[in-house]
């Protein structure tokens, strides 16, 4: 279970041991400092208490890539090419 450091009772993301987890609601390029998020493990069978919460290491959200161009017309020239939208 993942929580923000300022509200350790409200989960903001969950996942599994095999698939990991995804934190949503962040924007491209956001910088998250060490300890801004906390992680703990919860027993899916409910037999064990939740583990202690530990700091999640800091990270930067990957910047999105621009969409690859499509529908281009390429006309060869003597020294290269002319590329235009089609």
What is this structure's SSE topology?
Elements lengths: L1 E3 L2 E7 L1 E2 L3 E2 L9 E2 L4 E3 L14 E2 L3 E2 L11 E6 L2 E6 L1
Antiparallel strand pairs: 1-2, 1-6, 3-4, 5-8, 6-7, 9-10
Q: Can you describe what's shown?
A:
With 86 residues, the protein is mostly beta strands. The strands form four sheets. Strands 2-1-6-7 form a four-stranded antiparallel sheet, with no helix packed on it. The chain has a two-stranded antiparallel sheet with strand order 3-4. A two-stranded antiparallel sheet has the order 5-8. The chain starts with a strand and ends with a strand. The protein has strands at residues 2-4, 7-13, 15-16, 20-21, 31-32, 37-39, 54-55, 59-60, 72-77, 80-85. Strand 9 (72-77) and strand 10 form a beta hairpin. 0% of the residues lie in helices and 41% in strands.
Short structural description:
With 86 residues, the protein is mostly beta strands. Helices cover 0% and strands 41% of the residues.
**Largest beta-sheet characterization:** 4 strands, antiparallel
Which value, in Å, is the CA radius of gyration?
23 Å
Uncertain parts: none
Structural class, by secondary structure, is mainly beta
The percent range for helix content is: under 10%
Q: How many strand units?
A: 10
Distance between the termini: 49 Å
Strand/helix succession? EEEEEEEEEE
Shape: elongated
Q: Kindly report the average pLDDT value.
A: 87
Number of helices: 0
Strand content: 35-45%
Strand adjacency order, main sheet:
2-1-6-7
């Amino acid at each position: 279970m993942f929580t923000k450091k300022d509200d350790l009772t409200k989960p903001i993301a969950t996942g599994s041991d095999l698939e990991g987890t995804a934190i949503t609601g962040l924007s491209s390029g956001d910088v998250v400092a060490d300890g801004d998020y906390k992680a703990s493990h919860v027993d899916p069978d409910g037999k064990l208490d939740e583990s202690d919460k530990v700091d999640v290491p800091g990270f930067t959200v990957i910047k999105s890539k621009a969409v690859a161009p499509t529908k281009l017309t390429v006309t060869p020239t003597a020294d290269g090419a002319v590329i235009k939208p089609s």
